[in-house]
Amino acid sequence: MPTHVIRNAGASARDAFRSLVISQQLLGTTEVLLVKHTGCGMLTFDNDTARGLVKKNKGDEAAKEVEDLDFLAFPELEEKVQDDVQWLKSKAVEEGVKVTGWIYEVETGRVRKVV
């Protein structure tokens, strides 16, 4: 069975959805493992903070480019794993495709299943 790794900031299911659909439809993916990790930078900010940094570092023109962008940050790791798995299951994930959610604990090197 082929394996496809889709990596993005925060292991966002919403951000990876296009790639997941392509992987299922063209490459025959039959299982999705969503893996987030402890210490993730996406836990450390919100949209307003990110937009403020863009404005500060890149100026007003760049700030306009991201004014409606959802950076998909989140405040709680385990809750976000559960949310992303449920979101994927409600979308165009093919029938019979298994979707699970995991947390990689950077501190211990262990991986634990959340859902």
Automatic annotation (TrEMBL):
Keyword Secreted tagged: no
Cofactor: Zn(2+)
Alphabetical UniProt keywords: Metal-binding, Zinc
Family the UniProt entry places it in: Belongs to the beta-class carbonic anhydrase family.
The name this protein goes by in its record: Carbonic anhydrase
Species: Paraconiothyrium brasiliense
